[in-house]
Hints:
- By secondary structure, the protein is mainly alpha-helical.
- 81% of the residues lie in helices and 0% in strands.
- The protein has helices spanning 2-22, 24-27, 31-47, 53-82, 87-95, 105-141, 152-185, 192-211, 214-220.
Amino acid sequence: MLDLIALASFIGAYAGYAYLAEHPHHAKAGLNARVYGYREAWMRRMLAREQRMIDMQIMAAIQNGTAFFASTSLLAIGGALTLLRSTNELASFASELPFGIQSARGLWEAKTIGLALILAYAFFKFAWSYRLFNYVAILLGAAPPAAEKDTAEAQAHVARTARLFAVAGRHFNRGQRAFFFALGYLGWFIGPILLMATTAAVLIVIWRRQFASDALHAVIGE
């Protein structure tokens, strides 16, 4: 029963934060929403430049970061699945740690599969985000020349590119969120009480970074 309560707390924290972080009413006060405005400003200023090599270099840096997280997700999935091969030894070791509770083999395997599923979700989000950033790069390359920056077509192109940019960023953020909560999920391998504690710790950290961090104050100029 304690494991079920801890798992329900983890799922509730994950789903609740995801809702608050992406719901338009709450998200507009967060760091992600503030940066979105700068994405659109970047696209508009890009139109005024004849040479756009710096814009493509920035896109390449963003894509490389996304690719790093996608490849890391695959490695993490492999590491999680290898836990299934040493279930008895690892379960015995975890039970001897502070707050550790002896887990049945079936429960330990269920925990491991749950971790692998979280990491697989993160991989799909990072991989899709990487693909979307490729599309953004294509739209950047298809942008009208600087001489046409004030035309209706140029402004529509900016809106399309910025919107796709925001979608790619949203999927990347979902992948990172899965990574963060996967760290909290690791507490369950020692015991349900630690799962609730690590989930609360992760929730506090990511909430502060999104809604009350120095980075947010720097972006809004406070």
